[in-house]
Amino acid sequence: MPATTMEQLVSLCKRRGFIFAGSDIYGGLQGTYDYGPLGVELKNNIKQAWWRANVYERDDMEGLDAAILMNRLVWKYSGHEETFVDPMVDCRQCQSRWRADHVKNGKCEKCGSTNLTEPRPFNMMFKTAVGPVADGDSFAYLRPETAQGIFVNFKNVVDATSRRLPFGIAQIGKAFRNEITPRNFVFRVREFEQMEIEYFVRPGEDEAWHARWVEDRLHWWTTLGLSRDNLKLYHVPADELAHYSKATVDIFYKYPIGWEEIEGIANRTDYDLGSHSRGQADLGLTAKVSPNTDSTAKLTIPDPETQKPIVPYVIEPSAGVDRGVLALLCEAYEEEIKPNGEKRTVLRLKPSIAPIKAAVVPLKRNAPEIVDACKSLKRALQSTGEMRVVYEDTGNIGKAYSRHDEVGTPYCLTVDFQTLEDKTVTVRDRDTMTQIRLPMDEAYDYIRKGITETFARE
Ligand code: ATP
Prior knowledge:
alpha+beta
């Protein structure tokens, strides 16, 4: 059974080094978290799996890594300066502030008062000064979504790659939102990571592509280990749509806090490329443009049939890395009773995303020949740089096994005196707890087979 409370996960994450509260030694900074030794591996594995499925295993995608700091005009013309707001209410009794649509029964969550102000818009973008002189105009925003980095590079990528419609640009990176009430561990934070695709299509073909991307993205989360029963689609009603969206379908995961969004797939139409084309025209950076009709529009691409320049429509699958980490930890977490009556906590992560792929354990940590054999086995296993393998001598063998069960390590390899004679090792499987004896030089292929995964959809 997956984790039933957030506390189980918070406790495991801190204890074993997945996730810590940000700036912890100074009392923290609300809405920030740091990924520890295991968290960084898990997060990297998720990002790599996403990159593989969406960039390497497709023929219609390019990658990008744009700057976090962008010209303020980007956010003016994208509409974020005006509309990237959440409704905020103040409690007149205790002065706390809440996101209006998160307030339950009209009551302040802190003191229970119903004496709340009317909602007013609060812009969630963080501002920072750029350059040594902080005059009124020298500020920039930290990006609240990675998407705009893709839109402003649309022409650069098309020119550099000669791409034709349909094609996409994929990016993974940090985003920042000054959330009114960050909460629920890494679910709602002020600094987080997004994995975003902007997929450019012919207007008119957008709805079919939208439906296809929803299916693709849902499927990908299941290949990573989320059960289909714990995922559902939410068709966002018109009055909840973001300012740029014609239609959005959210993928919800059943977290211990309830069904919540893990990814949103929006049909952004020609809103962004159109707005930036207009922005350039307003500023005299190009001739006056009118999206979809005017051949002088800068952010255009030839229509595949007519060859006339058009502003393409765009489908945007936008996933949160941190919400992905949380969902995968929830799903994998299990407390069970072993046949001998002992309790064990096991993280049944798919081996492909497990932070550590194998632990090499010495039967005796003070026997030099055994330690040497362990070290050379570890070197051999990680020689191709594909997997994180650790040397584990922090306790006895039983302790090593339970420690690695708890962090999801799929294999423990034990080196004993027999190893010195016949060059075989014991391989213990995390899920079944069964052990087999294997020649040392077959261990690499054995583990590699166990951790290999295909993420692409047929
Ligand atoms: P919510 O309604 O929960 O605030 P959203 O609809 O504003 O989310 P999007 O703008 O669609 O979110 O962002 C795309 C993805 O980025 C989300 O599906 C989520 O995984 C992630 N994300 C957004 N805001 C946060 C946050 N504050 N903390 C962690 N992840 C976030």
